[in-house]
Amino acid sequence: MTKPGVIVIGVFLASVLGFAAAFLLGAHSVGNWMGGLALVFSGWAVIGQLVTLDDDMPGGWSNPDRSRALWSKSVGQLAIKMVIFGGVLWLFVVLQGRAST
Question: How far apart are the two ends of the chain, measured CA to CA in Å?
């Protein structure tokens, strides 16, 4: 993994942990900002993968050798990113619900 990739993942993880901790400690305004950052990062990853998914199809721009393994890997990565985005969104909604009660 590249150094910028490690930095982005670190910021994402810090924002997820930070917004969960902020909500649990009662700092809802800080939690909203950090949760928004986590949603933007995870959503950005999903949209970026989805937009370029056709390039990884057999015979596509990034896969001129028609490799099924590359296509399967790309679809698997998209699925993982969607699950992470869904988990962050679910956590954000749940913590927002706890904050309003």
Answer: 42
Residues 6+ apart with CB under 8 A from 87: none
pLDDT in tens, 14-44: 999 999 899 889 888 888 888 999 999 999 9
Question: Would the pLDDT of 100 be above 80?
Answer: no
CB atoms within 10 A of CB 22: 20
What is the C-alpha separation between 34 and 91, in angstroms, rounded? Answer: 12
Torsion of CA 23, 28, 32, 33, to 10 degrees: -100
Q: What is the DSSP letter of 54?
A: G
Q: For residue 92, what are the domain limits? A: 3-100
Q: What integer pLDDT is reported at residue 73 of this predicted model?
A: 94
CA distance 87 to 2: 25
Give the tokens for residue 57: 């199809």
